[in-house]
Specification:
It comes from Streptomyces polyrhachis. Pfam families: PhzC-PhzF. InterPro entries: Phenazine_PhzF-like. The protein is α+β, with helices and mostly antiparallel strands. The chain contains four helices and 14 strands. Strands 1, 2, 3, 4, 5, 6, 7, 8, 9, 10, 11, 12, 13 and 14 form a 14-stranded mixed beta sheet that branches. A hairpin with a 5-residue loop joins strand 13 and strand 14. The longest helix is centred in the N-terminal third of the chain and has 11 residues.
């Protein structure tokens, strides 16, 4: 079995929740795209990262069914794990910084895949949503406190790959931040936290807490 690390990305204030991420540090052990796709499907995380050059931060990102040129929580998690100032993705170079509690990435919103941003009147409406059938990728959100930029959100990828709801989604947070044009503090899923901040150069920062899981069975 190929060695891999498992992280939780965008953890809540207590260090819980977050979205699980698989990272294969020695990506050269699985160089072929079709084998990487098979391995990502076998792990079953919403995304799995293959590190092709740890010093340059060159990475390759897969969901269980497709390869992504860019994704938010894989970049935040891998940036934290490799402790590098930037990551090289097929979409371009992603800036990375760490402030001690949060790891931040910087990228343009147009790198994020299309999502339907669907606003609801209250957080309770978002909480009550049932998982929709496969099809449309929906980021459901409402204001918790508009004056403070606090948002309640849930993410439904709409894919038939076993990921009915995405616990924490950096790319969708990028799109929502670009849409609203302001910094956000997003509570997503069961208790994950994502912070965002538009920059003067048109890029957007997305930040969150990262934890390494060391007690998973079968690794």
């Amino acid at each position: 079995m190929t060695d891999y690390d498992v992280l939780r990305v965008f953890c809540g204030p207590s260090g819980g929740h977050g979205n699980q991420l698989g990272v294969v540090r020695e990506g050269g052990r699985i160089p072929e795209p079709e084998r990487r796709q098979e391995f990502a499907a076998k792990l079953g995380f919403s995304e799995t990262v293959f590190v092709d050059d740890p010093e340059r931060g060159a990475i390759d990102i897969y969901t269980p069914t497709l390869r992504l040129p860019f994704a938010g929580h894989p970049c935040v998690g891998t940036g934290w794990l490799l402790d590098v100032p930037e990551l090289v993705t097929p979409a371009g170079v992603v800036g990375v910084r760490d402030d001690g509690e949060f790891t931040w990435i910087e990228a343009p919103a147009d790198w994020a895949p299309p999502r339907t941003l669907r606003q609801y009147a209250t957080p309770e409406e978002v909480d009550a949503l049932a998982v929709p059938p496969p099809g449309e990728w929906v980021y459901a959100w409402s204001w918790q406190d508009e004056s403070a930029g606090r948002v309640r959100a849930r993410a439904f990828p709409g894919r038939d790959d076993g990921i009915a709801e995405d616990e924490a989604t950096g790319a969708a947070a990028l799109l929502l931040t670009a849409h609203l044009g302001r910094a956000l503090n997003i509570s997503q899923g069961r208790g994950s936290q994502l912070l965002t901040a538009p920059q003067l150069d048109g890029l957007i920062e997305v930040g969150g807490r990262v934890r390494l899981l060391t007690d998973l069975p079968g690794r």
